[in-house]
Write a structure and sequence with these properties.
The protein contains 14 helices and 14 strands. By secondary structure, the chain is of the alpha/beta class. It has one domain: TIM Barrel (Alpha-Beta Barrel), CATH 3.20.20.70. The chain is globular, with a radius of gyration of 20 Å. Bound molecules: flavin mononucleotide. Flavin mononucleotide binds next to helix 14.
Length: 381
Amino acid sequence: MSNSFKSNDNVVQSIDIEEDSPISFEEIESAAKQAMSTPAFSYIASGAGGEETVRNNADAFKKYSITPRLLNDVSKLDTSVTIFGQTYPTPLLLAPVGVLKLADEQGDLAVARAAAKYKVPFIQSTVSSYSIEDVAQATSDSSKWFQLYWSTNEEISFNMVKRAEEAGYKAIVLTIDTITLGYREKDMRHRFSPLALGYGQGNFESDPVFLSTLEKVNSRTIVQGIIDNINYPALNWEHVKELKKRTSLPLVLKGILHPEDALLAIEYGVDGIIVSNHGGRQLDGVISSIDALPEIVKVVDSQIPVLFDSGIRRGIDALKVLALGADAVLVGRPYVYSLAAGGEKGVGQFLANFLQDLQTSMMLSGVKDVKELRQLKIARV
Ligand SMILES: Cc1cc2nc3c(=O)[nH]c(=O)nc-3n(C[C@H](O)[C@H](O)[C@H](O)COP(=O)(O)O)c2cc1C
């Protein structure tokens, strides 16, 4: 079976979909569950506390429904978006996910390669399995952004940002909702920590500033060093101001849920925000990301790009979020499950299917340009 995805620049990419490869999110999730150990699958799937927010993120999408326009000649589509001066053929990015070796030995390399094929920017995590330089070398001609977890020793953060700049990354994403790890009951039950198992050290074991802080360098001290640095509850707006001064790249804050924080981000000169609740993995009981979006879009009033993640499973979900005013969307778990189930090829198949769903959904909604999606009538029921 063959699946094709057409974008505005008439790039038609076809990939072979194997007959028995998973298609729906539910099939991908179940294939990943079979491919992984219980603690590893659970680490990816689960959220904080009783997982109220994980459930709400997905359920909340059902409240928003589309009223399509018809007879609108949608034979030519434009799915491109321009963010920070870069034009991307689709409004999709891959969310930063750490410890990807848990899903597949090739981890970030496999994901970045699949993303490159579809010209989808890959946002690499601070706690990635491979280093910034490894990923850059594997995908030299694709767009990549770097996600930063602020280190207790801030010189490590500044050095990682410098490395991302030197490797040609296009933006810095500072995650602000993980100043301490969420209370994750399932990981506690399984006594499972991928960081302690060494899955998230690609950027640390290759960082001279980090290594210079260790008395002895071995696998035990590297893991301990990461654990000592990775949570920083003192993070505040002054750090944002300092980071802004330290980088020439656009700075994006990930984890905004409150309209006042969106306005502060603008006041502090931030270039973009990601409305996100970390896929329900941090504070259980927070507002679902899609419910938080409309008010934030309203106050931001197009001053900076508003990106979105948490709960997107299909192309049609992306369409709803774009119709509510987001400029682009990120997906997390769906591509991680695809990686676990089918490696690089699995991620490619997921992207092809997702983008085809988005394109079909645009056509059937009567919208030919992704930038016009916000004029689509969308009701909250
Ligand atoms: C296994 C896993 C690891 C993650 N690691 C990171 C990370 O290192 N940095 C970060 O900013 N967000 C991280 N996230 C959150 C994602 O970037 C994203 O916000 C979330 O997955 C979106 O929700 P979704 O999975 O429902 O698409 C992680 C999410 C998962 C599932």
